[in-house]
Structures are given as C-alpha cells and as structure tokens.
C-alpha cells in the first residue's frame, strides 16, 4: 500500500515535534523526493555508504545531512545528493528533537537495558533509572551484551550502584558530569568520553560507562520504525546498520 511523503512527515512530526529541537540544529526535511512512499529506510548517519544501502522511498536519519550553511556542492556531499536525487528518495532527519522527545533516544536506551525509571527525576534527554546490578563490572557487562559491543571505556570510581543517568550519543560534558555527581547519580552511561572528563569523574566520585556514540543511539531506529509500521497499514521499513568509521588494533 502506498502512502504519501507528507503523511510520513506528519507522523514523525507528531512523534518528535520540530519545536523541541535545539535552535542551532537542522531537523526536518533535508532532501525532497517522490510523493508516494511504500517503504522507509532508517539510518543513524547519512554517510555515503549508508545512503547507497537504503532501498526505501523515504529515508529517516537521526543525524542531519546539513549542519552548516552550504557554500558549494562538491566532493562527498555532491555524491550523496546525486544518490538521493537520482533515486528520488526523500531524506528527513530528527536529531535533537528526537533527543528531547518523551519516547526518544534516551527512553529507548533505558528501555532496551531493562532499567527502572526513577519517576519525577528524569528529563527526556537525561533519563535517571536504577538497576539490579550490584557492581560496575556487572552493569558494564550487561550494557556491552545488550548493545552488542565488546569495547567499553569504564571509569570505576568505587561507588555503589545507585541511580544511573543515561544520555545517548555524546553526553559526557563537564557540566553534565558535575550536575550528575551533585544530584546523587552514581553512574552515567553515554558515549564519546574524553580524558579530562574521565579525570573529572574520578575526582567527583562518579562512575562512567562509555558504550559508544553509535551504540547508544542506534536502538532508537527500531522504535521509530515500529511506530511508522503501526501508523500506516502496509508500510514496510528496514534499518540500515551503521558501520564504525575506525578499527580497533
């Protein structure tokens, strides 16, 4: 069954309204394509490799294709646009508005890890939860197994496992770590941990688990896909898994 591009966009806007986005972000329509949609491809990043593997009429990406104003079209951007325009595929992105949505990126990470939300303390971006794990080693092993990753960065500050903060993507900012430590959070799970933030966490007595930017955000694609499938009869979706841009040696 065919649906229209505008119907898909309307459903996505209801799930994660564009008004929730950070003012500096570029959420919404990135490239306009054909009006009729029979299938949707979901990707984390609009890399050239991911776009080539997308077979859907409509492509949903978490990260936008355009972050900054465009001065010229050449190189990889020209190839990406050629790929999309040649196939008449629509590209639509929900970035920070999906981060801030009630059932967005952090909610999905908490849900897939099977954690219990602490009512009244979470925000859509920062979920606060508890776990049955009794040590940082047990919690780290659970996170790694659930997210399918073999490599974690773990800062073990020696504290008991109490409240756990979750910010998928890149959430280890100095002010965030300080806030979490000051508000009784014993472990913060996110990605993109840097050296100085790890040292800061040790000084503040808060443990950190860096499970990866990609790994902590990727689960939300299935949530969005299932939402669209349930919203539109006969609409199919595929998730195009992102590749890591580096190897571990």
Describe this structure in words.
This protein is α/β, with parallel strands linked by helices and 249 residues long. The chain has two domains: 3-98 and 217-239, NIF3 (NGG1p interacting factor 3)-like (Udp-n-acetylmuramoylalanyl-d-glutamate--2,6- Diaminopimelate Ligase, Chain: A, domain 1, 3-Layer(aba) Sandwich); 105-211, NIF3 (NGG1p interacting factor 3)-like (Udp-n-acetylmuramoylalanyl-d-glutamate--2,6- Diaminopimelate Ligase, Chain: A, domain 1, 3-Layer(aba) Sandwich), CATH 3.40.1390.30. 36% of the residues lie in helices and 19% in strands. It has helices at residues 5-15, 48-52, 75-87, 96-99, 105-112, 136-147, 174-182, 195-204, 213-217, 220-231, and strands spanning 3-4, 28-31, 36-37, 39-43, 58-61, 90-93, 116-117, 127-130, 153-155, 163-166, 185-190, 207-210, 236-239. Strands 7-8-10-11-12-9 form a six-stranded mixed beta sheet, sandwiched between helices. Helix 7 (174-182) packs parallel to helix 8 (195-204). The protein is globular. The mean pLDDT is 97.
């Amino acid at each position: 069954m065919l649906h229209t591009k505008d119907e898909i966009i309307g459903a996505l806007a209801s799930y994660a309204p564009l008004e929730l986005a950070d003012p500096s972000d570029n959420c919404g329509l990135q490239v306009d394509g054909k009006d009729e949609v029979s299938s949707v491809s979901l990707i984390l990043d609009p890399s050239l490799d991911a776009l080539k593997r997308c077979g859907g009429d409509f492509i949903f990406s978490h990260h936008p294709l355009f972050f900054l104003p465009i001065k010229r079209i050449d190189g990889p951007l020209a190839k990406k646009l050629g790929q999309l325009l040649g196939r008449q595929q629509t590209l639509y992105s929900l970035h920070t508005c999906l981060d801030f949505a009630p059932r967005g990126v952090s909610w999905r990470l908490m849900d897939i890890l099977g954690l219990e939300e602490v009512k009244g303390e979470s925000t859509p971006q920062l979920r606060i939860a508890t776990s049955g794990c009794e040590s940082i080693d047990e919690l780290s092993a659970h996170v790694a197994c659930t997210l399918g990753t073999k490599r974690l960065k773990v800062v073990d500050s020696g504290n008991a496992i109490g409240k756990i903060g979750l910010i998928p993507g890149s959430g280890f900012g100095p002010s965030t770590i300080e806030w979490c430590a000051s508000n009784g959070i014993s472990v913060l799970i996110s990605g993109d941990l840097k050296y100085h933030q790890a040292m800061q966490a040790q000084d503040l007595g808060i443990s950190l688990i860096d499970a990866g930017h990609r790994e902590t955000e990727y689960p939300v694609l299935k949530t969005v896909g299932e939402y669209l499938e349930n919203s539109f009869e006969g609409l199919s979706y595929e998730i195009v898994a992102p590749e890591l841009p580096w190897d571990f040696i």
